[in-house]
Amino acid sequence: MSRPLEVVLISGGMDSAVALGMTLKERFEAAGLHLNYGQKTEKREVRAFKEICDFYGIEKRLVVSLPYFRQIGGSSLTDEKIPVSTSGIDPQGIPSSYVPFRNAHGLSIATSWAEVLGASRIVIGAVEEDSSGYPDCREVFYKAFEQAIRLGTKPKTKIEIATPVIHFSKAEIVRKGSELGVPFHLTWSCYQNEEAACGVCDSCRLRLKGFEEAGVEDPIPYKEKEKIYA
Amino acid sequence: MSRPLEVVLISGGMDSAVALGMTLKERFEAAGLHLNYGQKTEKREVRAFKEICDFYGIEKRLVVSLPYFRQIGGSSLTDEKIPVSTSGIDPQGIPSSYVPFRNAHGLSIATSWAEVLGASRIVIGAVEEDSSGYPDCREVFYKAFEQAIRLGTKPKTKIEIATPVIHFSKAEIVRKGSELGVPFHLTWSCYQNEEAACGVCDSCRLRLKGFEEAGVEDPIPYKEKEKIYA
Questions:
Q1: What is the torsion angle, in degrees rounded to the nearest 10, for the CA atoms of residue B123, residue B125, residue B126 and residue B128?
Q2: CB distance B104–A108 less than 8 Å?
């Protein structure tokens, strides 16, 4: 009997890679979905997506381009006029890297694809507590969206949203990934560089802090590693 | 003082045109959003969008392309292998023209744009009762999605979803549009033709039935008008 299908959002970063590693321990077959939304490190992230899919032998893959995020702007990740913050994470408020309501787009695409494939679950590696304070990374948002999926798809369609790392700290993600043999060397987190990670954008800082706290060496190359914690 | 902003989803069809005409009676300034999602009549619909915006003097416009709907498929509107139904509407079940979870994509884009613009309302011309039975056209879906918007955007962002024609029949839409001077001659509803409407696809049938019941002449050209009611 074939295994049930799930659509896994794989950004190329460490959180979604660990979420994927965790979900592959269950009996689901994964279909990998990656979004190019005009982010500055788009090419490096799609390479990470492909290498992670190769690593896990994922055959069903969908890479979609959302060029409209650049038309909409409003984020340092998609708007050339807004610089990526490198001066440390502001514990208050929403950072400039917030892409307005971005995760809803990923969930909508995942839902459409899941409905066509007949998949019963969407997996997303969102992290609530130790993330950058993005509102669309909170569990309450996913619960609300799951309800919208239930009411906005065919009656026979049943799709749940799994957020396996939502309450993990970055250190717990590193520990869990190490335990499961997740290929961290294939992942990419930096918001601004594609060759060697910058080490100072919010995403690099959170990643480095996670590896440091977990006592694990981060295998990807860095331009500089600043030991400034958020 | 400037008027509050709203993002109006303008498909080029008659429902969203009437929703727009109704909302412009209020004190909002409209920003027009149109989606090209790989539908067969994409070019004709974007022309209708532009002409409707010109008619109402809407300056803020965003036309976004969602080429991934063709990658996902699963609908007669986006998949060349699935023919558009022309044999009448099945009162049971979901028609082949259902594009899986499509309206969630439009709402997500509208929300991202509204958050960047500082708009406080999204207007969508979805019709629940007299539509083709699409699950993402029901009021319960919009209520659930509004909750997802509340939880997935910045705390200071307040965006509501207005569905002014959701409980209208097609005949009521025609009557309301006629009363408000909505430019029906600029709208396009046909799922398969771009020159003269086919008159026999589900969308043409619903439109023709609405005009007939309202006792109003439909001003757009038809290839054939079959008087078969759903």
A1: 110
A2: yes
B121 CB-side CA count, 13 A? 18
Task: Give the closest of A62, A74, A105 to B108, CB-based.
Answer: A105
What CA–CA distance (Å, rounded) separates B230 from B222?
A: 18
Alpha-carbon distance of A111 to B165, in angstroms, equals: 26
Tell me phi and psi for residue A35, to 5 degrees. Answer: -110, 125
- What are the chain B neighbours of A155 within 8 Å (beta carbons)? 135
In the 8-state DSSP scheme, what is residue B185? G
Distance from CA of A149 to the nearest CA of B (A): 8
Tokens of B133: 């039975």
> Which of B79, B98, B108, B115 best probes binding to A when mutated, by most A CB atoms within 10 angstroms?
B108
Pick from B67, B135, B149: CB nearest A153: B135
* Residues on chain B touching A67 (C-beta within 8 angstroms): 64-65
Distance from CA of B35 to the nearest CA of A (A): 10
d(CA A52, CA A59): 11
Nearest to B7 by CA among B48, B66, B60: B60
pTM, 2 dp: 0.89
Q: For A180-198, how does the pLDDT look when each residue is reduced to its tens digit (9 = 90+)?
A: 999 999 999 998 888 999 9
Question: What digits encode the pLDDT tens for the residues B211-228?
Answer: 999 999 999 999 866 554
Report helix, strand or coil for A123: strand
Of B137, B123, B114, nearest in space to B17 by CA: B123
- The Cβ of residue B190 has, within 10 Å, a number of other Cβ atoms equal to 25
ipTM: 0.86
Distance CA(B66)–CA(B70), nearest Å, equals 8
Mean pLDDT of A101-129: 94
Contact, A172 vs A164, CB < 8 A? no
Q: How far is A50 from chain B (nearest CA, A)?
A: 18
- Measured in whole angstroms, the distance separating CA B193 from the mean position of its chain's CA atoms is 17
Query: B105 to chain A: which residues are within 8 Å by CB?
Result: 105, 108-109, 112
